[in-house]
Amino acid sequence: MNNKNVLVSGQRLRLVPYLHHHVPRYHCWMSDPKMLELTASEPLTLQEEYENQQEWLCAEDKLTFIILAPVSVRQGEMEVHEGVCGKCSATAEENVEGGKKILHSSTGGASQHSKIPVDAATALTTRDGEEGLYVMIGDCNLFLLSSGEGEMEGDGSTDSTVDTAFHILSSDKISSVEPTTTNPTAADCGRCFEVEAMIAEGNFRRRGFGEEAVRLLMSYALDKLRASRFVAKVRANNFSSIQLFTSKLGFTLLKEVPVFGEIHYIKFFIDSDGESWKEEAGYLIGTYDESVERKLRITNLVPENEQT
């Protein structure tokens, strides 16, 4: 499932392959104790993360994309906020849904911010090849599952301890979701994937980026990987993720796995469903290379000499 040269574009986000030069920023995220706790991950050294990046890039049973978000410009200024690993660019959009997909940083409290002048003519983003300024905000992953992992049968256990997207704890209550009782025949011809995502930069949460990333990731799997069903493995007390997958993405209950404190949800697709899903997601696919990266003008951290 090598995605080394794949660019997935949505209305706002770009999904790009996890490459060598992304590793330092990713390692910074995953060095935060709270992030490790919320993602059920083990700490890696920088060298181990470089090795991990190569493994993911070459794997045939899993893939990962780095999530890039646009830096919006408002009156010629760009807001800069404290993120998990120091100061990072933050979008300045209003009235964007998805506010429950919160991954709390270890700092807590309100973010500090400053203002940095930027060139409004070049910082705005488009989908037609013009230059734009993007920032790395998280990642999203697919895991190829065996056919049995997408079925109702089971002994109450699972082979995977990877928690699904966003890893958020919430006190909100949700309505119960009825279990899936039938599997569409058309779906049996395709492949089953576990889907997950992480928005690591706190100032890019509450903007619907997590939902958009999952929609784009699933669109890619439908388009290029012969996917017909997706499984989300969510912690039973992760109410906001449950709300996301059931209310917003249309997943239904597959089974409960008490031994791991998880609830598994599933979504089936037939051909017509997949086409409408991709259209709704604003899904476009292209080639990712050095020239595209230069046009995207990816920034991970605001240079110290630009901070005021």
From TrEMBL:
Domain of life: Eukaryota
Keywords: Acyltransferase, Transferase
Gene Ontology MF terms: N-acetyltransferase activity
UniProt cross-references to InterPro entries, sorted A to Z: Acyl_CoA_acyltransferase, GNAT_dom, NAT9-like
GO cellular component terms listed in the entry, alphabetical order: cytoplasm
A family per Pfam: Acetyltransf_3
Every N-acetyltransferase domain range: 188-252
Family assignment from sequence similarity: Belongs to the acetyltransferase family. GNAT subfamily.
Official protein name in the record: N-acetyltransferase, putative
Source species: Trypanosoma brucei brucei (strain 927/4 GUTat10.1)
Lineage start: Eukaryota, Discoba, Euglenozoa, Kinetoplastea, Metakinetoplastina
